[in-house]
Amino acid sequence: MKVLLVDDEKHVRDAIRLLVNWKQHGIETILEAQDGEAATEMVLQHHPEIIMTDMMMPIMNGVKLLEWLQAYAPDSKTIVISGHDDFSLLRHTLKYGGTDYILKPIDQEQLNEALVKAIQAWMKDEELRHTSRELNIEMNQIKPMYWDKLLSNLIAEPSSYDAAAEQLDKELYLGRQTSHCRVAILSLDTMERSVKNKFSQNLDLLLFSLINISNEFLLKDRRGYAFRHWNSENEIVLLLWKDQPGAEAFLTTINEGIRTALHTRVDFGIGSSHAFPADLSLSYQEARIALRQRNLKAKNTWIHSTLNRITATQPTLTFSHYEERIQLAIRSGSLDQIEQTVQQWIDSVKQSEVVTLEQLDHWWREYSVMKRRWIQQFFSNISEDKVKQMLLDEPTSLIVPLDEYGILSLSLWQQELTRSIMHLSKLVLESQHKDKNVIFEIAEFLQKHYHEDITLQDIASRFYLSREYISRKFKQQFEVNLSDYLGEIRMSKAKILLHNPHLRISQVAEMVGYQDEKYFSKVFKKLEGMTPNEYRKTANSI
């Protein structure tokens, strides 16, 4: 904390220095000025929290200084130390924010009390300022989210407009006089790869930057507003309600602004003009269709609409036509066969004059369905959880394979498709290897002969392996020892048999490989947490 002493007499400033224990009050810096004008320079440079000033000084007196402080340093707290017992000076002190008026000669106790009072007043105000700053920061963070949600909802539910009409007019200048509006969508999916990579760890920052750049242009002329679509991930929507015929040209201007700031351009889809707010969703859907049906194999324009989209007559190409060929390549386990099959698909795509995002999405969904079906065919009795685990290497949504300039890259797509199919082929080969593995043969033997009196020595003799090798490898593969694995099989069978009330416990024990009923009950309770009789009662009650 800093204190500024203002007095034209040096001995008075020296006396004040000696009368106060500054460290006790948390004062680290003591500044001095010999008149009001010098004091203003010190205030602007150092921003002291506490100012102690005389009233009668040359050049700029205390009266003028108080007036200046209220205008230019209102947060500072001022203590007046004067040799004049003048009511008008006291009144002036109170009027311009002074916290105390002390008469000379200075009383030490009175001076320290005044300083404590001024410090407490400053700290109380600072706490309020801090709270206000925090609140403003929070409001500035929440406000964009509020507009995002409100305007997103307006697209889906036009009836929500009436409740927000006054606020939209006041803050966005979207008044009731607006009868028609156009919707544009800013697309990130065909943005240059280098920019995407730069923001890969903070996509929110990229969206924030694009929205801010767009709104710099839109709000300046009160012609529209850009926001993040609440109901669609990573989509920026622009509402355009002024100069709608020139909207395409204006989007080009925004794109140039984006190029200047981020060194890239983006694709815009734009719908036609529709009644506001009733038909806002129609313009939004047109903008989406324009983006999804644009040709990804060429970059003729950055602004796309359903009115100017290019349609080409070509045979319908579906990924499912290649299912059998890909499936055979997977079973072969040959990289050459897989590469050859993928190349056939890519060659077919190359013959298409137009490839749209809609087509890519359809092909990706076909491949996802086929891959799930292949896994279920290749791996018998596989659980749904295991299927999901094997599909973890695949993205949950379409990732458009683009080159550095945002144009569809068939070579990148070919590489990714080859990698994905080869990965599945590798899993199939590993599974086939495991099926032949002796440890899995032992597990299968236990599944079939659980009701017999089986010992580790019996298994070792049957499979011509040492007991130690079987124990070690079995534990590595299944993460349980062989006896526990056999016990779990027997208990699962026993629980099924216990549902039959006509079977005695001793019969159930014998049927699952236990000749001793008491030992069976002991093992059952250890594994299941209850006796066979308790389990039977619980199961029958259910």
Defining traits:
542 residues; alpha/beta; Rossmann fold; six-stranded mixed beta sheet; five-stranded parallel beta sheet; 11 strands
How does the SSE layout of this entry go?
Elements: E1 2-6, H1 10-19, E2 29-33, H2 36-46, E3 50-53, H3 62-72, E4 77-82, H4 87-95, E5 98-103, H5 108-156, H6 161-172, E6 180-187, H7 193-198, H8 203-220, E7 224-228, E8 236-240, H9 247-262, E9 267-270, E10 274-275, H10 280-292, E11 303-305, H11 323-332, H12 335-350, H13 357-378, H14 384-390, H15 410-436, H16 438-449, H17 456-463, H18 467-478, H19 482-497, H20 505-511, H21 517-528, H22 532-541
Parallel strand pairs: 1-2, 1-3, 3-4, 4-5, 9-11
Antiparallel strand pairs: 6-8, 6-9, 6-10, 7-8
Describe this structure in words.
The protein has helices at residues 10-19, 36-46, 62-72, 87-95, 108-156, 161-172, 193-198, 203-220, 247-262, 280-292, 323-332, 335-350, 357-378, 384-390, 410-436, 438-449, 456-463, 467-478, 482-497, 505-511, 517-528, 532-541, and strands at residues 2-6, 29-33, 50-53, 77-82, 98-103, 180-187, 224-228, 236-240, 267-270, 274-275, 303-305. It has 22 helices and eleven strands. It has four domains: 2-128, Response regulator (Rossmann fold, 3-Layer(aba) Sandwich), CATH 3.40.50.2300; 157-305, Reverse transcriptase/Diguanylate cyclase domain (Alpha-Beta Plaits), CATH 3.30.70.270; 319-432, no CATH class; 438-541, Arc Repressor Mutant, subunit A (Orthogonal Bundle), CATH 1.10.10. The model has no long low-confidence stretch (mean pLDDT 87). The strands form two sheets. Strands 6, 7, 8, 9, 10 and 11 form a six-stranded mixed beta sheet that branches. The chain has a five-stranded parallel beta sheet with strand order 2-1-3-4-5, with helices on both faces.
